[in-house]
Design goal:
The protein is built from one helix and 22 strands. The protein is mostly beta strands and 290 residues long. The strands form seven sheets. Strands 13, 14, 16, 17 and 18 form a five-stranded antiparallel sheet that branches. It has a four-stranded antiparallel sheet with strand order 3-5-8-7, with no helix packed on it. A hairpin with a 2-residue loop joins β7 and β8 (98-103).
Length: 290
């Protein structure tokens, strides 16, 4: 009679066998024959982040996850095909299936495409990682339904390591094959922790109409990718409205600055008709040039 005692059987299994196909014959609790089938496969590569936004002078890490059997040989290459080796500027490291490349003290010439390449006896694979200094993709934050018939204030945020110089706003009617109209918007808002916020009023729109828009941002390294297409609508009628603050969440009661510095105060306001703005200091109107 053959008796299998499972408690003894499990005590003999290595943790590395779990969740992998195994075969074997079990005679009793002290006599186990066990074989392991190893699946052979060509390399497969996953890239956690294929676009890395970075700043000059910083240390930048890029990585790829590689699996294959036999264990693949791995190398990092520059866009021109040059193989990267360990030195003072580049540091290569492997942690299990994770293969990492650190570029120290990033230079302008380090921006560009990097290739993670792997090969074994069953095949080869490669994936690209891009290091760029351009802004990240803008995110449009305005409400989808406007309060005006012929105007709409669109707002967005963008993450950029270096200052944003300008934006491009493209918009058109959603129905039909209308051509895109483009507005170039100078960057007028300062950043908070690298996050830039901007708004712009589109005019001469049709009341009660659906529009779509995309936004791009530019810094010294070039243009970002386009935002996701944003759909908004105008009001059916140009209804009169009292003035209101469009971004009260960004208005501060107090700003502390050293004497002798230049301070920019902004107050985003809308209304129909367009409100007339006045600035007061301690209740006294501020005149231009003072």
């Amino acid at each position: 009679m053959c008796l299998v005692i499972y408690t003894s059987f499990f005590s003999l299994l290595s943790a590395s066998f779990l969740n992998e196909p195994v075969t074997g014959e079990f005679y009793n609790n002290s006599d186990v024959q066990l074989t392991r089938r190893v699946k052979r496969d060509a390399p497969k590569i996953q890239v956690p982040n294929s676009w890395v936004h970075a700043k000059e002078g910083t240390n930048v890490n890029i990585s790829c996850i590689i699996r294959g059997e036999p264990v693949p040989s791995v190398m990092w290459k520059k866009a021109d095909g040059q193989v990267i080796h360990n030195n003072e500027h580049y540091h290569l490291e492997t942690l299990g299936h994770l293969y990492m490349l650190q570029i120290r003290d990033l230079k302008v010439q380090d921006f560009g495409r990097y290739e993670c390449a792997a090969s074994n006896s069953l095949g080869s694979a490669s994936e690209n990682v891009h290091i760029v200094g351009t802004p990240q993709v803008p995110v449009i934050t305005s409400k989808p339904h406007g309060s005006r018939g012929t105007k709409y204030t669109i707002s967005w945020t963008v993450d950029s390591i270096t200052p944003v110089d300008e934006y491009s706003v493209m918009y058109r009617e959603k129905s039909g094959n209308a051509e895109w109209e483009t507005k170039v918007v100078p960057a007028t808002y300062e950043s908070e922790n690298g996050i830039y916020t901007q708004m712009f009023q589109l005019a001469d729109l049709k009341p009660g109409t659906l529009y779509e828009a995309v936004v791009r941002a530019r810094n010294e390294f070039g243009w970002s990718k386009e935002s996701e297409v944003f759909v908004f609508s105008t009001e059916k009628d140009d209804i009169p409205s009292i003035p209101y603050f469009t971004r009260p969440d960004r208005m501060r009661d107090y700003i502390a600055v050293p004497a002798g510095t230049t301070v920019n105060l902004r107050c985003p306001v809308d209304g129909n008709p367009t409100p007339k703005m006045n600035w007061l200091r301690d209740g006294v109107p501020v005149e231009k040039g003072n």
